Amino acid sequence: MDPGVVGTVAIAMIAGALRVSTPFLFVSLGECLTETSGRINLGNEGALVLGAMVAYATSYQTGNPWAGVAAAGVMGLLFGAAHGAICALPRVNDVAMGIAFMLAGTGTAFFFGKPYVQPSAPLLPTLPLGFWSDLPQVRSALAVSPLFFIGLAAAFVMHWVLRSTRMGLRVRIVGDSKDAALALGLPITRIRLVATSVGSGLAGIGGSFLSLSYPGSWNEGLSSGQGLMAVALVVFARWSPLACIGASLMFGAAGALGASLQAVGVTQGYYLSYAAPYVVTLAILIATVAPGRALRGMPGELSFGR
Amino acid sequence: MAPVDGAASVPIPALAAPAVSVVTDTTYPLRRALEAVFTPLAALVLATAAFSLFLIFLGKSPADFFDLLWTGAFGSTFSLQNTLQRASPLLLTALCVALPAQLGLVIIGGEGAVLLGGLAAAVVGVPMTDAPAIVTQLAMAVAGIAAGAIWIGATGALRAIRGVNETIASLVMAYIATALFNQLVEGVLRDPASLNKPSTYAIPDDAMMGPVPGTDLHPGIPIGIAACIAAWVLISRTSAGFASRVTGGNLRAAQLQGLPVVKLIILACALGGGCAGLAGMLEVAVVQGRANASLAAGYGYTGILIAFLARHNPIAIIPMAVLLGGVGAAGGLLQRRMDLPDASVLVLEGMIFVAILAGETIYGRIKWFQPRGTA
Fold first, then answer.
1. B179 vs A: CB within 8 A
2. Under an 8 A CB cutoff, do B175 and A304 touch?
3. Cys staple from A213: which of A145, A228, B98, B291, with CB 3.0 to 4.6 Å?
4. Beta strands in A108-197 (DSSP E)
5. Domain of residue B31, residue span
6. Contacts A–B by Cβ distance under 8 A
């Protein structure tokens, strides 16, 4: 049975959305948490690449890919803690420091990752959700990584924590109004430090997906800037963890556009299609902000749109 | 809310000095200048020390590393030439960050302007086979500058008119520029003879820019230095520059004064983008001869680092660009002699960047540098 042209493109886009969205989901959740506490962390790109390298190396050394995922999370946590601690110093700009950490993180990952470009490490298993279909395309499209579902669960947990727990309320207060947090006697520095660390840890796990699931290898061109695009994605998701799921799926589908068109023989504009997610991001940024008025849902302490 | 930093930290002598140091404290301007030299220097030393520890931890000798770094960057005529060739585009891409930074903007998409500037220069230059070399070169420069200015200027316009965050917008625009560049170079503009490395057709041979007459100096060096000096004059000696620094210091105050903030932002971004576009044009006209993937060598990103190292002072960009050009030029030697991955240079750069930015925190903390004698 032939799925036809439209079917092939649709299947490829769904497959792309399910595959490519997972790192977006983790990084955007991490960025969302950090920004909810009133800070931007562009260094999540560094955490992502470092996480990818650490996960691959750990998986290769121990033979257990899940140990790699855990190691990537811990690495991201430590990386974020360093960013959070330095940004807590007065007069230090969190945006510029994020770029510095991005450079330091990717540099460190390339440095220590050199010996792991060649060997192949055990990868994460996938869940064969396409078992009901006879079509090999559908089967491979629906071979979903368990990390995707962990990401979904993380989004729901984060939504619940931020909305319905004392801890989440504190994070939101610190992010919305420093004055209110001071008046309540909340430990602003500590709360932001924890939010940045955990956010960066999530970005590290997102990186482990890149090296251990899809594309499933370690090399220096592994990340295409997902850590940076997460910032735009969070704007699109209006700082809501649940909306991050939809935003990530959409970015994943947009990223798969070129490959899926090529699969049906449309080769024109192949390279241009790489721009699709970025054009979407820019359009969203332009459409959602307006001068002189804060975005709905935006934490008040963000040095974002003056 | 604190204004976005970066430009806020650029010294604003005309605003800060006279208020306190009228008679009592004559050496304050000197001490303030010393503070601006001392702080990044201390950060540089700290980063070097941290990197040395990193090397010792790996069982490599830091002394060897910095010795080789020196040899590879400035040790011979060949390495010095290599260093200057790398420094030349960095002078211009750093201006792409430093000029908008006067207004408090953080533009990180210079890479896109470099690519499009180079591409535009090649598109204009390739068909001009009959024109005199100087005409072709000027036309290429104009095309490169225009492409970069439009690209970054558009980012500035989005910021000024629509309120889109310029850091993210410029980065996204850089990714779009990369896709556009690849599409055109691999598609309609591709020279079918370039098999392994898709490129545009080559510009006419006699339109290639040779070294500065009488020397072996890369022609981008005098152009880049002239651009830095011009930027310095613009920022510190003209009313537009003054208005920009006021805007960077306090946006609300600038608006209340009736300064043309929107125009200033677009102008600064367009000028910065023009510099980055010129860097791309020079890469095509001096080194590559055609536009191809070699243009995406990360000059735009290293420029960010240099601008921050220089604290967005165009004059300070000159030594910093040479320094970073040297670090880049030494990468190959380090790889061969010490068996270190070429990413070791990235690690060093990252450490320097973190230390310099963290060093912002000690500004105004050391009493000796501060104004004495309250009026």
1. yes
2. no
3. A145
4. 127-128, 143-144
5. 27-369
6. 152
